[in-house]
Design goal:
- The complex is a heterodimer of chains A (934) and B (233).
- Chain A has 934 residues and is mainly β.
- Among the domains of chain A are: 148 residues, YVTN repeat-like/Quinoprotein amine dehydrogenase (Methylamine Dehydrogenase, Chain H, 7 Propeller); 45 residues, no CATH class; 154 residues, no CATH class; 34 residues.
- Chain A has 6 helices and 60 strands.
- A 4-stranded antiparallel sheet of chain A has the order 2-60-59-58, with no helix packed on it.
- Chain A is globular, with a radius of gyration of 34 Å.
- The N terminus of chain A is likely disordered.
- Chain B has 233 residues and is of the alpha+beta class.
- Chain B has 2 domains: 126 residues, Immunoglobulins (Immunoglobulin-like, Sandwich), CATH 2.60.40; 53 residues, no CATH class.
- Chain B contains 7 helices and 12 strands.
- In chain B, the strands form 3 sheets. Chain B has a 6-stranded antiparallel sheet, with no helix packed on it.
- In chain B, helix 4 runs antiparallel to helix 7.
- Chain B is rod-shaped and about 100 Å long.
- Chain B starts with a helix and ends with a helix.
- Classes of the chains: A mainly beta (934), B alpha+beta (233).
- Strand 1 of chain A pairs parallel with strand 12 of chain B, so a sheet runs across the interface.
- Chain A: Keywords: Endoplasmic reticulum, Glycoprotein, Membrane, Signal, Transmembrane, Transmembrane helix.
- Chain A: It is found in: Endoplasmic reticulum membrane.
- Chain A: Belongs to the EMC1 family.
- Chain A: Component of the ER membrane protein complex (EMC).
């Protein structure tokens, strides 16, 4: 073990550079930890342990991320990404009153988590069966653990009571009647299984089976005649649980009456739907307390397109009757309700677009009414989770977590906004960097001057300078402040950002919106705009392409494949720009490529207008049985400073630099092989191809191309005999010739053709050398740092799903020319090559996210800044993360390590020295002239 | 009766093995202090099982079918060793060893089977340090730099040598002058001028012809000086 430790630390010692400095951490990087959109049935306030005074806000989001949030500041206390993808109908989260456990159910996995720190207590896997419902029996056992009831369908509906402390099965009830399981519910004494069986004619009959809580034996079964109203399980509005009188509710066909049954009884109570005006069919939601000690009151919420209102009902348990207590008035716009309990009292919190109202279930008197502050975007509450603290009979401080329809999650504390979390940013599907319009503006002006005649250009420059003078007084005023605060290198206003660290990041969200962030503060969204009308649950069919407009600075073009024309938005405001003659897709573009049916079709600019596949210029097909898993092309803007690589003995290996190359990786599931093809995208010729056997084709294969090299990673398949296991990365470098100082068949020719030399059919193929390294974990996505001139050495950025991070691997180590099996020669040392080692450990210092945990990051984008040394990085997926990297250190800007005081002190000391020494020197010089040397 | 029934229903699930991987309390870290985001994966062909850390400092994998698995532990604060876990035979025997990245799969290290059968132990190796400290100003490193050493040496030569020569007694001085004349390096008698004539560029370029004669030339000067003093005493 010791030598393993030595090995690990040894590998890390090779390159001490390229780490995040302790004083830069949390300063230059920004991270928005997110959860996803909270669901109404999986969000609640709960005390993390029994005697806790403060409660945490727990949620299981649509992205299957379970998290606890501190309601005070909105910070995440802990979170766990559960195995998704989840569909909102089978995710569950419950917590028993006064218990330190939250129980989640996602797909086939039930898990109990420690409420205070998020550690797993137990988990249970259902195999192929999906969990249908999950409840907690409130009565805890001696250790304070409430048992868990689960319902799943394993051929038959199965109800299980799991021990709260261990997850072991206490009893099990299998419903062999052939009914479809729907939900499970509990009261203080019984467990109810709600299932459907098909009625003889049509529709579904609700069947409620009562089970004994202690033994799981069937005690009673009721069939409710619902077949005339209910045809699908979605029509059931509500099934209560953990209440003294759990309810089931649905509406009749005409949407005129609400039908409510108290579980365990036979009577169905008809409640008239209070639909006073022309609203045809309002959406109905029920809110009832989830606590057996609470009063048996419930609220029916009606939401129509224009207004919302509610009725409150009381259940009389003894008589099994339901009576209407009062109505809440109709208010315009969207509204949402939440039910909360304090001891036995039940409170309803109503959040509308303009106010927050608290009422008690007992009477219609308003206990609290707080107007909401006017914000830029109106709050359209979708879901509310509220917590009421009854301090006295007159004071009811209330806080409510409100999910608004734009995806923001806000905590209202007596009507005041405590915090807002941009949970909709979990849905980023693509992103791009766009320069500030000011910066582009100067470039534009300079270009303008370059194209004018000398006099006009001079006049133009003079007027520009006079205009710039206007900013002088404010600049002078801000000078001391700039001088004092120049540590971070980031300016507050775009005008002062000389380093180009400030850019806009334009995001496309899966719900059809475009949003913008600022790289210097990506925690707040500048604007968001809906560009595509999508219904709930609908997603963008293919990610749109975002591109900075080449025609006008400060404009971003959103190219949606289906639209054919781009939507042009101003990056600062998100307003649709009015530009004359928008370009049409395919116009003024080069080749376009389409990937369909494991074939790549290339269309010349003229060919694409036909749209037909047959008009493609070339097509590339992989072998039969292969499927394409990745295509990576060299970035359009990929400057390379040096065309050769200088060796230790001053000879040069010339790089193969072809702007039109793409890397296509394909796998064959049957043979477990990976083939990597390097294509010339003009001619479609394969320049290089390599195959690997024994690859696990079910895993992610990431690849990237830049400069004269490409890299890809894969997971080894164990079934291949012998050898090693784990994950590997391959680095390949392309040179014009294997011999130094030789430029290959092209020589010094200034022109070349992708089609071949001198009209011949043979293309110029690169000399490719590769090396493979074992890496500790699977890589999700790869990209490369980019700088303005391409002088700075590069880093390969890889995103890691398992260690929740983004790692920058320096190219010095990921070099295909590392000497194998011997120490480097003096020349190789001069070149910076180190001896090849089969493993490449990810040094913690390479983690751009350092201590932060960037959950679920899928892709990363990079952009050059104005400083040659620095590249901007932005990663998205679930969390949002942005930072900047300097692969060769910040050689062009003074870092924080530069001590200004020390420099001033040195200058002062030198000055003093000069003043002191000057008379001595003068005297010596005079003496020298007058004294005759012996 | 009900118990038997329960057992029967559990059986099909437990056909595959249950692996419990525990983190022992080591001097490096108390496992209870590990963050809740710590998790472990078991990798085999097409299978990737993931288990978060439990309150008991274990990772529990359900339904593990027979095979040879690679266990990796991912933790924010510590790096862990990799293990090979084999689940074999009808009775689902579980064996575990250390494994080393980049080595053959059959190259196994120490056994990591836990005390309880079916339990496996995985140990942290080293704490992760994410940050680089800036190399601040230190007098020692400043003095150690070759440029400063060179400057200090020449300063000593320029200031010290004339003083040394002045302090010599006339007899030794005459002898010293004589010696300098015989070596024929009158031009280099002044160490300062010798330093000024020193062909730094040539010396750095590794040229031996011109500069080679400079360095030994200074040695007799020093030796002569010291010798003179010794004789006087």
């Amino acid at each position: 073990m010791r030598w393993l430790a030595l090995l690990l630390s040894g590998a890390w010692l090779v390159e001490p550079a390229l780490a995040v400095f302790a004083d830069d951490a949390f300063q230059i990087d920004h991270h928005v930890p997110l959860l996803g959109l909270p669901q109404s049935h999986t969000t609640f306030f709960h005390q993390p342990y029994a005697k806790s005074k403060a409660s945490l806000l727990y949620t299981l989001s649509d992205k299957a991320v379970l998290g606890a949030i501190n309601p005070r500041d909105g910070a995440i206390v802990w979170r766990q990404a559960l195995a998704g993808p989840a569909n909102s109908s089978n995710i569950f989260l419950r917590a028993g009153d006064g218990q330190d456990v939250v129980v989640s159910g996602v797909n086939n996995n039930i898990a109990a988590w420690a409420a205070s720190d998020g550690r797993l207590i137990w988990s249970r896997n259902l195999g192929n069966a999906l969990v249908h419902d999950l409840e907690i029996i409130e009565l805890p056992d001696a250790k304070g653990n409430g048992d868990v009831l689960i319902l799943y369908n394993d051929g038959h509906p199965v109800v299980q009571r799991l021990d709260g402390g261990s997850g072991n099965v206490k009893w099990e009830y299998i419903d062999k009647t052939g009914d479809n399981a729907f939900q499970v519910s509990t009261s203080s004494a019984h467990v109810y299984l709600i299932s459907f069986h098909k009625a003889i004619m049509s529709g579904l009959k609700i069947r409620v089976t009562s089970l004994d809580q202690l033994t799981g034996r069937e005690t009673d079964a009721q069939s409710l005649s619902s077949e005339s109203d209910v045809t699908s399980p979605e029509q059931i509005l509500y099934v209560g649980a953990n209440s003294a009188s759990p309810l089931i509710a649905w509406t009749d066909k005409a949407n005129k009456a609400l039908k409510v049954n108290i579980l365990g009884t036979k009577t169905i109570v008809n409640l008239p739907i209070n639909n006073s005006d022309e609203d045809d069919s309002p959406a109905i939601t029920l809110h009832a307390p989830h606590r057996s000690t609470a009063l048996t009151h419930f609220l029916v919420h009606y939401q129509s397109a224009r207004s919302h209102w509610a009725d409150v009902y009381h259940v009389n348990l003894a008589k099994s009757t339901i009576s209407k207590a009062y109505s809440l008035p109709k208010l315009a716009g969207q509204g949402a309700f939440s039910c909360s309990t304090v001891d036995a009292n039940v409170f309803f919190t109503r959040v509308t677009e303009s106010e927050m109202i608290l009422v008690s279930s007992a009477s219609h008197g308003v206990l609290g009414r707080w107007p909401l502050a006017k914000t830029q975007s109106p709050l359209l509450p979708l879901r509310v989770t509220a917590e009421v603290a009854a301090l006295s009979s007159s004071s009811y401080p209330t806080r409510a977590a409100v999910l608004s329809s734009n995806g923001e999650w806000t905590l209202l504390r007596n009507g005041d906004v405590s915090w807002t979390r941009p949970e909709y940013l979990t849905g980023v599907i693509t992103a791009t960097f766009v320069d500030l319009p000011e910066e582009q503006g100067l470039v534009h002006e300079l270009e303008l001057e370059g194209h004018q005649n000398a006099l006009a250009a001079y006049v133009h420059r003079l007027t520009r300078h006079v205009n710039d003078l206007k900013a002088l007084p404010s600049w002078l005023q801000s000078l001391p402040k700039t001088f004092m605060g120049s540590k971070s290198g980031i300016a507050d206003s775009p005008q002062k950002d000389k380093f180009g660290f400030r850019k806009y990041i334009i995001l496309a969200l899966e719900d059809g919106r475009i949003a913008a962030l600022d790289t210097t503060n990506p925690t707040s969204v500048l604007w968001s705009k809906r560009v595509l009308k999508l219904g709930p649950g609908e997603r963008w069919s293919a990610p749109p392409e975002l591109r900075a407009s080449s025609r006008k600075p400060g404009i971003v073009e959103v190219w949606d494949k289906a639209a054919g024309r781009p939507i042009e938005l101003e990056v600062e405001t998100g307003i649709e720009a009015e530009l004359p003659d928008s370009p049409v897709l395919g116009e003024h573009q080069g080749f376009t490529f389409e990937l369909a049916d494991n074939t790549i079709h290339a269309f010349s600019p003229s060919g694409h207008s036909n749209g037909a596949v047959s008009s493609s210029t070339w097509k590339f097909m992989v072998r039969t049985g292969d499927r394409i898993v990745g295509v990576a092309a060299r970035p359009v803007n990929d400057p390379v400073a040096s065309i050769g690589k200088v060796l230790g003995d001053r000879r040069v290996l010339y790089k193969y630099l072809d702007p039109n190359i793409a890397l296509v990786s394909s796998v064959n599931d049957a043979t477990g092989s990976l083939t990597v093809h390097l294509l010339d995208t003009v001619s479609g010729t394969t320049l290089h191809s390599v195959s690997y056997l024994g690859v696990d084709t079910t895993r992610t294969i990431a690849s990237t191309v830049a400069e004269n090299w490409f890299a890809y990673s894969f997971t080894l398949d164990d079934s291949a005999s012998g050898s090693s296991r784990g994950h590997q990365i391959v680095i390949s470098e392309m040179y014009e010739s294997p011999v130094p100082n030789d430029r290959g068949p092209l020589g010094d020719a200034s022109n070349y053709s992708s089609l071949g030399i001198d009209g011949g059919s043979q293309p110029v193929v690169p000399h490719v050398i590769s090396q493979t390294f074992h890496i500790p974990e699977e890589i999700q996505y790869m990209t490369v740092t980019r700088t303005r001139q391409g002088i700075t050495s590069r880093e390969l950025l890889v995103t890691l799903a398992d260690s929740h991070g983004i790692v920058a691997i320096p190219r010095q180590l990921l070099d295909a020319r590392r000497p194998v099996g011997r120490d480097p020669t003096a020349d190789e040392v001069a070149e910076g090559l180190v001896r090849y080692h089969p493993t490449l450990e990810f040094d913690p210092k390479w983690y751009l996210n350092h201590q932060r945990e960037v959950l679920g990051v899928k892709e990363a984008i990079t952009s050059p800044s104005n400083l040659e040394s620095t590249s901007l990085v932005f990663a998205y997926g679930l969390d949002i993360f942005g930072t900047r990297v300097a692969p060769s250190f910040t050689f062009d800007v003074l870092g924080k390590g530069f001590n200004k005081l020390q420099m001033l002190a040195t200058v002062a000391a030198l000055g003093v020295g000069v003043i002191v020494v000057a008379p001595l020197v003068r005297r010596k010089q005079i003496n020298q002239r007058w004294q005759i040397s012996s | 009766m009900l118990k038997l029934f329960t057992l029967l229903s559990v059986l099909p699930v437990s056909l595959a093995a249950l692996i419990t991987v525990s983190i022992p309390n080591t001097p490096l870290v108390n496992p209870s202090s590990l963050p809740a985001s710590t998790h472990a994966t078991l990798d085999e062909h097409g299978v990737k099982l993931d288990a978060p850390i439990t309150r008991a400092n274990t990772f529990v994998f359900h339904n593990v079918s027979s095979g040879s698995y690679l266990l990796s532990v991912f933790c924010k604060d510590y790096a862990f060793e990799n293990l090979r876990i084999d689940v074999t035979g009808e009775e689902e025997r579980i064996e575990a060893w250390q494994t080393f990245r980049g080595n053959e799969w059959d190259n196994k290290g120490e056994s990591r089977a836990g005390v309880v059968p079916g339990q496996v132990e995985v140990r942290p190796v080293v704490a992760k340090d994410y940050y680089q400290q800036r190399s601040g100003f230190s007098v020692l490193s400043f003095l150690k730099s070759p440029m400063i050493l060179m400057a200090l040496f020449s300063l000593v030569m320029i200031v010290g040598m004339p003083k040394l020569l002045e302090n010599m007694d006339p007899e030794a001085r005459a002898e010293f002058d004589e010696m300098q004349k015989t070596t024929g390096l009158g031009a280099a008698s002044n160490p300062a001028s010798a330093m000024q004539n020193f062909d730094l560029a040539g010396w750095m370029a590794g040229a031996t012809s011109g500069s080679g004669s400079n360095t030994p030339a200074q040695q007799p000067e020093e030796r002569g000086g010291k010798g003179g003093q010794r004789r006087r005493g």
